[in-house]
Amino acid sequence: MKSLKxxxxxxxxxxxxxxxxxxxxxxxxxxxMYVSVPYDANGVKSAGGVVxxxxxxxxxVSRNGIVAYDIPDTNEGYEKAKAxxxxxxxxxxxxxxxGKELYDIYCASCHGKKGDGNGVLSQRDKFNGIPNYKDRxxxxxxxxxxIMYGKNLMGSHASQLRYQERWQVVQYVEKLRSELK
Length: 181
Prior knowledge:
By secondary structure, the protein is mainly alpha-helical. It has a domain at about 65-180: Cytochrome Bc1 Complex, Chain D, domain 2 (Orthogonal Bundle), CATH 1.10.760.10. The chain has helices at about 1-20, 30-35, 75-85, 95-105, 110, 120-125, 140-150, 165-180, and strands at about 45, 50. The chain has a two-stranded antiparallel sheet with strand order 1-2. The chain starts with a helix and ends with a helix.
């Protein structure tokens, strides 16, 4: 009976202790759970508060195949990519095979298996006006630029494809384009 009185007394004391003023800050058991540290997922902010993407320091080794792409998403950047970018990968069967595999996953649903703009989504009238590769003035530079940033209805595929994979898709698109002529 005595232990029951002690337990009852502890419950009453705990109840009164929990009914304090809620407007004043209380002790936080794990403060990082209440107030998280914000991180900027889009890049590093400069002193002026502008988000900048930093190009790796010369002579350093890139991590995880990430290579900085410093050509802007503008019409001038598109023309610069068309004029200056060249595919750094060797044109071989292994790269073409991997490019075909990635093309079938990411591109064929719109552009078609042959690059004729007659993919499944075009046939079902989900998207109209998907370009045929033979009708376009394409080279490896502007194909890569469009994969990076997208163009018109096509969105960017930079987050789905790594640097080498993008160039493998570029090789395969160039092969499809040559077969359409």
